[in-house]
Amino acid sequence: GHGPPTDEPPIRTRRAAPAFMAAMEQGRFEIVFLHGFACLRAHEAAGYVPLARFSTLHKAGAAVRAHSSVQSIAALRGETVGTGPEGNPSRYHIRHALRQDGLLSGERPVHLRAFGRTFDCLQAVVSRNVGGCAGSSDVLQVFQQRNCLPGALRVVYETGAHPDALFVAHPRVSPAERLALREAITAWGWS
Questions:
Q1: What is the reported pTM?
Q2: Which of 52, 98, 114, 180 would disulfide-bridge 185, Cβ 3.0–4.6 Å?
Q3: pLDDT of residue 165
């Protein structure tokens, strides 16, 4: 062996986001470290609860061309909205918001189209190939700066602020164990 035996559970990691997210949604992990936007997905799928997070916060949103008549996500009914790839947390959040507003069903539903990168999705908005794009607000700003397109896009929907990254625990982790974990993690300088 590589040291003394231990009663601690092994640490497992997943390289591919889809495989990791599938395992997380099945509740296969006791503790998960994930992007803040994925917290809602973790909670809805398997009941994970927050333990500790970074102090920085981010938002996701939906952007349209600056001169578009669209003023809200409701106005995207019947349109195609681009997103990052499957498994992208912003894609999950926009789908959740659209579903809550009844925009994914009924007459003229919003259609979601996954792109390989959020930058490609934003470029599709600029070139009028999709009606809007859902992604991180930070990515929207970088896209406009990098492509010398200040003011080309306008945000019509934005999530509340979410932590950049956080630890969550499965409900089978007892409250006492969660408290001990939270104290250990915050001792590392997390909030």
A1: 0.64
A2: 52
A3: 77
